[in-house]
Amino acid sequence: MELSKIGLSLGFLCFFFLHGVLACSTRKVHHYSFIVSETNFTRLCITKSMLTVNGQWPGPTIQVRKGDTAFVQVHNHGKYGITIHWHGVKQPRNPWSDGPENVTQCPIQPGKSFIYEVTFSDEVGTVWWHAHSDWSRATVHGAIVILPARGTTYPFRKPDAEKVLVLGEWYNGDLKEIIDKATESGAPPEESTAYTINGQPGFPNNCSKETTYRLQVQYGKTYLLRLVNAVMNEEMFFGIANHKLTVVAQDGAYIKPITTDYIMTSPGQTMDILLIANQPPSHYYIAGSPFFDAGFIATYDSSNTSAILEYTGNFAPPASPPYPSLPNIRNRAAADNFTKRIRALASRAHPVNVPKKIDTKIFMTVGLNELLCPDATCGGPNGNKLSSSLNNISFVTSTIDILQAYYRDLPGVFKKDFPDKPLYVFNYTGEVADNTLYPLQGTNVTMIDYGASVEIVLQGTSVQFGEFHPMHLHGYSFYWVGTGYGNYDETTSPKTYNLKDPPEVNTVGLPRNGWVAIRFVANNPGVWFLHCHLERHASWGMSTVIIVKNGPTKETSIRPPPPNLPSCS
Ligand SMILES: *[C@@H]1O[C@H](CO)[C@@H](O)[C@H](O)[C@H]1NC(C)=O
Ligand SMILES: *[C@@H]1O[C@H](CO)[C@@H](O)[C@H](O)[C@H]1NC(C)=O
Ligand SMILES: *[C@@H]1O[C@H](CO)[C@@H](O)[C@H](O)[C@H]1NC(C)=O
Ligand SMILES: *[C@@H]1O[C@H](CO)[C@@H](O)[C@H](O)[C@H]1NC(C)=O
Ligand SMILES: *[C@@H]1O[C@H](CO)[C@@H](O)[C@H](O)[C@H]1NC(C)=O
Ligand SMILES: *[C@@H]1O[C@H](CO)[C@@H](O)[C@H](O)[C@H]1NC(C)=O
Ligand SMILES: *[C@@H]1O[C@H](CO)[C@@H](O)[C@H](O)[C@H]1NC(C)=O
Ligand SMILES: *[C@@H]1O[C@H](CO)[C@@H](O)[C@H](O)[C@H]1NC(C)=O
Ligand SMILES: [Cu+2]
Fold first, then answer.
1. Which of the residues 166, 359, 460, 517 has an alpha carbon 20 to 30 A from that of 507?
2. Which portions of the sequence form the region Disordered (predicted)?
3. Residues near ligand 9 ion, CB 5 Å cutoff
4. In the chain, how many domains are there?
């Protein structure tokens, strides 16, 4: 059912890679049409109207080969402005098509449309797309499958078939009302009612048992599962009863295969997983359960979601199929045991080019905060509003996109003074005084020279309380070189780095009261959002913007804006 795909053309063309090398290849151009509109869905005995693309939830899958281009025409038939982000696609020199609202574009207004040019470069495997305005990404999202370049193949045995699995979250209420209400009151937003696999909560939810997603397999065959974590506010454990999973790629880059009983995935991440159907033909539960690591009794959805792995053949289906054993919701050791095994493939065909000498170092604290409320009349803790920040600055979204303001030199939209280290040094993960709770607020960006080797250390804090944060950078994937608990130490922490085969990802899990170090070469000029991929934290201001300046040539500079950019009101 590829109604969204409207065309394909093949051209022999030459183009410059980011590093300035001229390359020629058969590069296909794909055309898709996305109609964003309100559609009725029934789950958990509730019928509600929600925003979807082409009436589908999850939305249509985009399929390309490495290095192709997809033009996606997005028509907004909804009630509010919307933007779409191509999560994990670097969009070389073309931030105009990246999507975050008022960062790289103003929203596509109701009744209007915009054509995104999605330029693939070195990504391979699975990434995804989602809305990047208010909370509409809960229902406006889908997978992007990137097959190996023409004439090449997988660095593992070719699977017999491939399946997309999208982990999501169902809210009984209206998403726009939920976030608007929380923003106004300062209270935490209402949690979801269920997690979903391909849009279905599954067993044991009464009303949705019949519609549980079924993954059909044949005994003896190997399947490539392309798992997208589109959950809004919690990390997830995932497993299949009696079956091993072999993870072969994450975030659009290959890793050394990891064979495991369960995985942990955070919102924003994607994983390619090999599944061998080698168990007695029967039914087995596929399940996801939340992992939530916060030093506080915050609200979260504690339910499980399930689908069924259904073998073909003649057998009496079990009344209650085996259920996978997944770690408990608070089991941080189990989460760490999985993530610490992730290593880049680092083969001759898929090399690691981690920068060894660093030109630009940024140290950034990640914290939860409160905004003082007059007479303590707000709905958050202490009568305040919940907030969050990076380096103690809570991001304020501008009303003209930062990209346009930067490109056209419009004054007063943002400040180029995001601090490269905290203004106030304290014991980040220790006891923190209550008066440090209140952040600064602003639209402050970091300017980075083209070609610089960059290291960013993200430091979790216990301001208000510590929590796990999946941090996502647009425009790049980066090497995740180090991680630890407690405060980052400039002398001892770098000695623990993996510079040999660090995974190349676009979203990294910052452990509660811990740190992560990431490295990349700033070879993609543009305006790039950096934020927590837990939606409530991002809504509270856990975001910032990195501007990578133009290089010396046209081929190392931002492309001119497309003619049909949505206008800012
Ligand atoms: C959606 O459901 C509502 C009632 O719940 C109904 O009024 C409306 O016509 C439905 N819309 C569509 C497109 O079916
Ligand atoms: C779901 O099933 C349980 C029994 O398994 C029952 O008590 C409950 O009322 C049902 N809920 C709905 C909404 O049907
Ligand atoms: C949900 O998953 C957790 C972890 O595997 C398990 O302890 C719990 O029993 C599951 N709940 C249900 C209803 O199956
Ligand atoms: C984590 O791994 C260690 C060593 O492999 C093991 O001893 C421990 O039981 C594991 N913990 C969990 C919670 O899985
Ligand atoms: C983005 O800017 C528009 C005006 O162009 C404004 O209406 C909208 O509220 C802004 N969005 C956010 C999230 O601030
Ligand atoms: C920071 O706080 C932690 C936890 O309270 C404590 O163990 C550590 O000693 C403190 N570090 C310093 C340098 O004070
Ligand atoms: C954040 O900045 C405010 C205003 O300067 C200050 O009161 C507060 O202590 C700072 N908090 C942290 C964690 O640096
Ligand atoms: C950040 O930007 C705001 C305006 O958006 C400005 O008032 C403030 O001085 C800037 N710098 C810092 C460090 O907050
Ligand atoms: Cu967060």
1. 359
2. 184-203
3. 469, 532, 534, 537
4. 3
168 shares a domain with 106: no
Question: Ligand 7, from 392, 393, 440, 463: best to mutate by most atoms within 8 Å of Cβ?
Answer: 392
Residue 561 lies in a domain: no
Residue with the nearest Cα to atom 3 of ligand 7? 439
What residue owns the CA closest to ligand 2's atom 10?
206
Probe residue for ligand 3, chosen from 209, 305, 326, 328 as the CB with the greatest number of ligand atoms within 8 Å: 326
- Please tell me whether residues 60 and 198 are part of one structural domain: no
The CATH number of the domain holding residue 267 is 2.60.40.420
The residue ranges of the chain whose pLDDT is under 50 are: 1-2, 12-21
Residues in the chain: 569
Check if 42 has its Cβ closer than 6 Å to any atom of ligand 1: no
- Give a yes or no: residue 169 inside a domain: yes
Nearest Cα residue to atom 1 of ligand 6? 430
pLDDT per residue over 339-394, tens digit each?
999 999 999 999 999 999 999 999 999 999 999 999 999 999 999 999 999 999 99
Protein residue with least CA distance to atom 1, ligand 7: 439
Please state, as a whole number, how many other Cβ atoms lie within 10 Å of the Cβ of residue 36.
25
- 499 burial level (CB within 10 Å; 0-12, 13-18, 19+): middle
397 in contact with ligand 5, CB cutoff 6 A: yes
Compute φ and ψ for 182, nearest 5 degrees.
-65, -40
Paired sense of beta strands 113-119 and 69-76, if any: antiparallel
Residues 326, 392 within the same domain: no
pLDDT at 8: 61
Shared-domain flag, residues 239 and 333: yes
Distance 375 CA to ligand 9 centre (A): 28
Which of 272, 304, 339 delimits the end of a domain?
A: 339
Relative to beta strand 507-510, strand 283-291 is unpaired
The radius of gyration of the chain from alpha carbons, rounded to an integer in Å, stands at 23
Residue 513 is assigned to a structural domain of this protein: yes
Please check whether residues 459 and 424 belong to one and the same domain: yes
Among protein residues, the one with the nearest Cα to ligand 6's atom 7 is: 430
Residue minimizing CA distance to atom 5 of ligand 2: 206
Q: For residue range 159-207, what is the model confidence (pLDDT) as tens digits?
A: 999 999 999 999 999 999 999 999 999 999 999 999 999 999 998 888 8
Residue 8 lies in a domain: no
State whether 165 and 143 are in the same domain. no
Kindly identify the ligand whose nearest atom is closest to the C-alpha of 39. 1
Phi, psi of 334 (to 5 degrees): -70, -40
Q: Which is nearest to 267 in space by CA: 248, 239, 290?
A: 290
Whether residue 378 is found in the same domain as residue 334: no
Could you list the residue range(s) of the whole structural domain that residue 465 is in? 360-556
Q: Please indicate whether residue 298, judged by its CB atom, sits closer than 6 Å to ligand 5.
A: no
| Ligand closest to CA 386 | 9
Give distance in angstroms: CA of 347 to centre of ligand 4: 29
